[in-house]
Task: structure prediction
Amino acid sequence: MSYTSLYRKFRPIGFEDVKGQEHIVKTLQNQITSGRVGHAYLFCGTRGTGKTTIAKILARAVNCEHPIDGSPCNECAVCKSILNNTSMNVIEIDAASNNGVDNIRDIIDEVQYSPTEGKYKVYIIDEVHMLSAGAFNALLKTLEEPPSYVIFILATTEVHKIPITILSRCQRYDFRRISIDTIADRMADLMVEEKVEVEPKALRYVAKAADGSMRDGLSLLDQCIAFNYGEVLTYDKVLEVLGAVDIEVFQKLMTYIRTQDVVNCMELIEELLIKGRELSQFVIDFTWYLRNLMLLKTSEHAEDMIEVSTENYEQLKQMANEVELDTLMRYIRIFSDLANQIKYASQKRVLVEIACIKLCRPEMETNYDSVLDRLRVLEDKLENGVVVSGRQESGTVQSMAAAEDVPAKPQILVEALPEEVQSIAKNWNRILDILEGPIRSMLMSAKPTVNEANEIVLVFSKDLDRTYVEREDSMAILKQAIGEYSGKEVKIQTKVVAEGREGFDKISDISKLIKTPNVEYD
Result:
């Protein structure tokens, strides 16, 4: 006899066997018990949540000769004929391949004949959203006022494609995604019946990978058992079969990203590919890992929402303490975008590598969260004593000192004369050429001029830019760059245009803001 897959072998045959849809099961049982059965039902929800299964149970229950609390007995002649697919009273139609007007007209012709056995003729139309517009229109009148012995059960995964005229004629039931606990418990019971030894941790990972679908979970479990037939199904073996990655790999990758170690990131991806890991699954799992870190940063009871072992939870907690929330949100944004792109990509490895480089190099992006990450990197460098004020190729004393790991000698600068200050303001772009990193980006939006006190005044359109430049470390970097260019020391003031960017763009004479002579620019 041929092998029957788990999801077919253990498909529920009674309402009491259905897991995760108690709100629907209870309602249908009450309708059958009270005799208040509707004429048209719409079952909608994601794949593998039990829509067709419950439709078949309902078809048996309304025809059962001896129903038990609204559930079919599965022992009477009618129940057995429906279970064996020999009954003429339950007609299952696949709308994906029977979606034309002629197919619906055949149904309309058939409903004129009463059932040969049992009380009702039940039409189960699966993937009903695939019907054409003409087919929907042909179905309308019959769906609204069918014969008293006809019940329509429509099932769909895309309810938004159903015309409102159809929706208004049906009782709608929304099927929920099944929880990880429910799927794992169901699989554990089935493994006892199948006499297969499985680690609970392995079952939980399969349940998580099922993404709310009981059928997907059982299919994945079937695959894992087949690969390790006759052996104990362990967590590591499940990872190997599903091409998944363990949390330790994510911890390692996160460390490389935090230290901007692009080379090790690339080597880690290469190692995953050699081991046969699936990159699409890797992207999904790493995004989930980042989500867990974010929960630890934002919730006091995150352990109730994170499905990991105690050891892994402690590792997650340690990493969460080291990374900022804004940085995590940036990482999640990049990998969420990647998850949408990688589904249809032929070069998945390249996309993953680009995403990892983006995480390591926040300066590649101009988003607000990437600017914050760049500031974090700069602060880390400053705390570690790394000088970041100038470009290495400019040959500055500070850059060479940092490269040689020796302290730089402080420059002794003379205060600039009025004409020298005017020259510095006039050639401001050359100052910017010396700078790099976040401070250069912030200063790109500033307009310089000179006031009566012989000070350079930087006019900003955004208070965020001005606040960053006014910081003690930022101002030191700026003055150092001016010293490298001119050999002089100048005083610097900052100002923000009250009208914001619109007012800033309209400024034709900055001197009017500070009552000083205007400066010409390169």
Residues 279-298 form the longest helix (20 residues).
